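Case study B.
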Amino acid sequence: MTTKDTVYIALFAALTAALGLIPQITLATGVPITAQSMGIMLAGALLGAKRGGLAIVLFLVLVAIGLPLLAGGRGGAGVFFGASGGFLLGFPIGAFIIGFLFDRHVGQPPFLLSLIYVIIGGIGVVYLLGVPWLAQVADLTLAQAFTGSIAFVPGDIIKSVVTVIIAREVRRALPDL
Amino acid sequence: MLDLYQAGTSPIHMLRPGWKILSLAIAGSALFAVDHILFSAGLLVTTLVLYHLAGLPLSRAWAQIRPALWVFGLIFVAQIIFNDWLIGLYAVVRLAVLLMLAGLLTLTTKSSDMIDGITEGLGPLRRIGVNPDRVSLAISLTLRFIPVLSHVVQDVREAQRARGLDRNILSLAIPTIVRTIRMAEEVSDAIDARGS
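Model:
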């Protein structure tokens, strides 16, 4: 890994933290959405599997050691044991999977395919870890935990679309990222 | 540095970060492995005693769980509907203990000490190709980049305001990311030139 890779990893960890500072928007359905998960999607789509995954691992290390970088100013090791701990663990794996799917293309994947990749990693993988964890921690069945989480999916899809638009423009400006 | 640390000289403050992290991991695993409400209740009392030993008022312990109260409420109500109130109470107590213990680690350990602890702890991972110095570099760079990013956002916003685009997330995000990536390249060249 080169110095440039290390610096990029740090930059996207910082970007994910900075996105958590943007005040959350409340959808018409009353569900809050934060921009933070776009950091996970962008890291995977722009840095690829290894660097993207490591950027989010780094972000979570900083959260774990007590910096209040999660959306809403939360931080500390406790957040990993809470109800949303599984979603947090899903973040770096999701970024890795998005990066892995993007890495299979030489140039940019087409728009729709990029969107599918971001949805698989940024929503699919994250919920795959988050929902069973929520069920375990809260002593709920999987179906109950899933029903409780589904309200966040529309917001996540909006974020996926915005991420793909941003990632394509950035890659156009910086083709050899 | 932005930090949740509460200065103090108690034995818990003095304990090495690595031990504290390890103890938290063991207590957290035990809470789920020993599936008995008396064990969770015992750990709850122990946790409150540890807060006292650390010289922290019980209001600090309460502050750790206050943001999660609505989650507790949801879990409790769901358990009353699907099981009974005792299981609900058990689930809530277990979660509260975890949050308070993790909070204790955060409140009694400086972030910089925690970073040193991590770098030290990563030593054995050299063999599988992890370079602890690289990890320290990445951590310090991230902490430096966060304020830089908000600065760049301000600059871009001002530039876009002149064009009436300052309320469009895309016209803010794309130039910000492109600009900071270019800056990251310069930083990386500077680090390489300095030979560290």
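The CA atoms of residues 45 and 97 of chain B lie 9 Å apart. The remaining cases will be described in the next quarterly update.
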